[in-house]
Amino acid sequence: MLELIIFAGLAAIVLYQLYSVLGRRVGRQPEDQPAAAEPAGPVVRPADRPLEAAEEGVSLTGLAAVRARDPSFDVGRFLGGARSAYEMTVKAFAAGDRPTLRNLLAPTVMASFDSAIAARETEGRTESVEFLHAPRADLEKAEVVGAGDLARLTVRFLAEFRSRSKGPEGEAVDDRRTAELWTFERNLKSRDPNWTLVHVDAAEA
Q1: What is the DSSP letter of 180?
Q2: Each residue of 23-38: pLDDT tens digit?
Q3: Domain that holds residue 107
């Protein structure tokens, strides 16, 4: 009987020591972390941020200005149309096709092209153009001018083509590489979706 009492006492001592060790927390606990400091001022979530275009006093420029007045404007579609207009204009100029050029060019540009065509005709020369590769078109600049309805976009064209010309001295073939900046305009309120070439400048390749 005495032995049972002794064993019971030892067991109680061992259990107490185990509880004192196992019940003690080891390492840092989540509740031991310092509370995160509250940020000064109100918290602005991404969804709560106002759009720049809607803020008063914000002046939109470049493509943002164009899209603000014409939400349907698409850069890829515009450049595809500009590339087609470029090829059509170069070929029409070489062929002396004035009716086609009048549909594509502003009066001042048309006058310049017409003078060059007339001079070639006076010399008794004819010309044709064949593109060796599809021309490259990159948007160089975009702006909205005037009262805010006239969009003006400048495109850099890089092209390689073969020019065949015939004159009193015979036929000549010339392979050319050109780099030019063509500026197109369009009234964004107009129902006419076509752009007009208003300026041509030489550019660095």
Answers
A1: E
A2: 334 344 444 444 444 4
A3: 60-202
